[in-house]
Amino acid sequence: MTEKQSILGRIAQLTRANINALIDRAEDPQKMLDQLVRDFTNSIVEAEEAVAVTIGNLRLAEQDHAADLEEARDWGNKALAASNKADEMRTAGNAAEAQRFDDLAKIAITKQIAAEQEARDAEPMIASQNEVVDKLKTGLTQMRGKLEELKSKRDQLVARAKTAEAQGKVQSAISSINVLDPTTEISRFEEQVRKEEARVAGHAELNAGSLESQFAELEDYGTKSEVELRLAALKQGRTTGQIEA
């Protein structure tokens, strides 16, 4: 298992465990989603800290490598200086001093070789760590992107939940209207009005019949009066034979 997998893998495993626990005990979806965002944010913070430590260790290794290279150059310069001095002593006829400086040059060269070896030994590890750091940075970027995606989905789901709740309230109101239809009361009042209209019409019809009977009596009275007049005329002998129309 690589260091990247060990760092982000542990965090991802912990995050999944927290998510599953939240889903299992979720009662309020919005609270669950908010907690999920907080947990994922905390996981990113933990990942950032772990990656920061890894980057810090890499930078220390790079500094040590640079120090080894600098030390190798320094010992190389010392070896060169000692060798030059040995040549001067040998030219001056001082063989003992020449040998002493040659020995110092050899010591410097030995230390130069050791520093160069330490630098070479560190280079594969530094290269590997640089790859790990690059992958960790990419992983963190992906986690941050997932967090933004999670926040966006959280906002969408909360909005949908509120819309669904509002629609549920509307549907409940409609259902209650269907059960307690206010038009029923209007229909009942309309029936009362129709009955009153019918009662008034009945009285009007009765009154109309009474008036017709009164006019009929007048016609009967007129007919009787004409009969009486003609009878009186007959008795007085004003007409003979056919009665004038």
From TrEMBL:
Coiled coil: 133-167
Keyword entries, A-Z: Coiled coil
Domain of life: Bacteria
Pfam families on file: PspA_IM30
InterPro entries linked to this entry: PspA_VIPP1 (IPR007157)
This protein's record includes keyword Transmembrane: no
UniProt record similarity statement: Belongs to the PspA/Vipp/IM30 family.
Protein's name in the database: Phage shock protein A (PspA) family protein
Organism: Georgenia satyanarayanai
